């Protein structure tokens, strides 16, 4: 076969690729469908560069290679040389009249699981190695890429530095205690101390270590030197939550800013979220429109709803009053002091305010040790951003910068100060007011794509009893 430089499908379908018209081009990709009439075969080819397929037209008689054509079935991978021409068919601008075809890989129609008909998301999760080849997951993973790029772009354009925080840590940032242990000890022959407890001084790092639940504590160290930093990496939680909103491994974005109070922090969170939604709308409308057409007629309306509305800001205490006065019967009853469930969060966002909501000043007993204590001695300067359909999408706070108050809180919460001596030292040397938050990438992906299950917005989900691929 003649060597011609490959052109991606997305390029070939652009209105302005007329310079290639009537020229011979090469395209490579996976066959979505093949149909035929009389002596013509139509192959819909996709290379993942766009939701749209390019149509390859084969004159069967002129081609004179039935053996090859027989193997061009759904899922097969081929390389095509042919002439780019304007398409007669509606819905597509250009198509390729094939001259030469090379078959890279067959896909036996009796065995290849992704035949034309629609599959359930549950089934597709079982074949996560192949699901990126569906239209839906192609769209989702392109959106995920664009969103990740936009995150870096936003921070870079706003003078934040990307700080890499460790994946393996010896501390528990959120104090939830649900962490995955990292060890090289031999489980069949564990070293013991005199009191019978395991001797972690003999472990790889000479101490107990875990996969991080958050990069925040190290992020604060960065902010108290570089002013504005952000982290963007995988985080791990060993909670046994088998829900459509929880993963055991998820990606979190955590900006941390010196000299920001909680109001600056909320302004940033709102601006950041709106920027990201707008960026995906500006750059991935094809994919969004596909998802809207297939699954969720209100998708783009909901994205616009975020852009249009100023987020409603109120305190946890005010929110509890609204929930109590709502007359609603919630599965989890509400009263001051309880942690809010997504049913409460969604009531506030979808029923009461009908706009995104930022709740602040939560009871200290349901929040982590590092949050700045309010003068009432009961609440902390926490913030949660709540979105329609999702509930909590961001959690953050102003941080306690006062050494004595922070130390007292650490003792009250039974954290060993020796484990976080380095964190405490930032409050001894040149401490400063500062704030930050964490955005769950997959929660935002859920919102932007309209998918119902968080396992469908990450390529290879990790969840209880689930680490295949
Ligand atoms: O509210 P969280 O636990 O806050 C923190 O980890 C702070 N250290 C953040 C900070 O202030 N720098 O988690 C932050 C966000 C949540 O709002 C949610 O979007 C997401 O991370 N998240 C999860 N996403 C998927 N699966 C899970 N199990 C998640 N847990 C939290
Ligand atoms: Mg939270």
Q: Can you describe what's shown?
A:
The protein is elongated, with a radius of gyration of 27 Å. 31% of the residues lie in helices and 24% in strands. The chain is α+β, with helices and mostly antiparallel strands and 469 residues long. It is built from 14 helices and 16 strands. Strands 6-10-11-16-15-14-13-12 form an eight-stranded mixed beta sheet, sandwiched between helices. A five-stranded mixed beta barrel has the order 1-2-3-5-4. The protein has a three-stranded antiparallel beta sheet with strand order 7-9-8, with no helix packed on it. It binds 4-amino-1,4-dioxobutan-2-aminium adenosine-5'-monophosphate and magnesium ion. Magnesium ion (MG) binds next to strand 15.
List the helices and strands and how they pair.
Elements: H1 9-12, E1 24-37, E2 40-46, E3 54-59, H2 60-63, H3 66-71, E4 77-86, E5 94-105, H4 121-126, H5 135-157, E6 161-162, E7 168-169, E8 181-182, E9 209-211, H6 216-226, E10 228-236, E11 249-258, H7 262-283, H8 285-294, H9 299-308, E12 312-315, H10 316-325, H11 342-353, E13 357-363, E14 379-387, E15 391-398, H12 403-412, H13 421-428, E16 434-440, H14 441-449
Helix pairs in contact: 5-7, 5-8, 7-9
The chain binds 4-amino-1,4-dioxobutan-2-aminium adenosine-5'-monophosphate (4AD) and magnesium ion.
The site of 4-amino-1,4-dioxobutan-2-aminium adenosine-5'-monophosphate has 22 residues, from strand 11, strand 15, strand 16 and helix 14.
